[in-house]
């Protein structure tokens, strides 16, 4: 087997055996990686690659948005949806305009969300729960669901 095939198989196994929380982290990390590549391409004035990496980031953020479960996530899911929609608009703006600020704004937000999910997953795992992350700011009221689950 060719080394690239081993890598692809490894990635596929990593995704198929990951918890929901770990998958969310992988998506954030992928979005941050592609956004960094878009920013590098912007600095080099490589419009083609900049556009490619913005599209990849856009696809990941869009998938994160589509996977929100508003029924179980309540107000927090709604706030995340608004944040994701803001990011999608900024990515589109960053693809159209020759400035890096919209992309840098999205990168900062993705890093903050990634760090929050990392903390959530560590807390869930150390409490002995299966990692179905509790969202920061979610209701502590037991009658209100405080977990965001994925439709995906």
What is the topology?
Blueprint (H helix, E strand, L loop, with lengths): L2 H14 L3 H24 L3 H20 L3 H27 L4 H26 L26
Helix pairs in contact: 2-3, 2-5, 3-4, 4-5
Quote the beta fraction.
under 5%
Number of domains: 1
Look at the structure and give the mean pLDDT: 81
| CA-CA gap between termini | 31 Å
What's the CATH topology label?
A: Four Helix Bundle (Hemerythrin (Met), subunit A)
- Poorly predicted regions are 13-17, 131-149
Number of strands: 0
What's the CATH first level?
A: Mainly Alpha
Radius of gyration: 17 Å
User: Any guess at the CATH architecture?
Assistant: Up-down Bundle
Number of helices: 5
Summing up helix and strand content along with how strands pair, one would put the structural category as mainly alpha
State the CATH superfamily name: Flagellar protein FliS
Helix content: over 70%
**Shape field:** globular
SSE arrangement, N to C: HHHHH
Largest pleated sheet: none
General description of the model:
This protein has 152 residues and is mainly α. It has one domain (20-126): Flagellar protein FliS (Four Helix Bundle (Hemerythrin (Met), subunit A)). The chain is built from 5 helices and no strands. The chain has helices at 3-16, 20-43, 47-66, 70-96, 101-126. The longest helix has 27 residues, at 70-96. It is globular, with a radius of gyration of 17 Å. The two termini are 31 Å apart.
Features:
152 residues, mainly alpha, Four Helix Bundle (Hemerythrin (Met), subunit A), globular
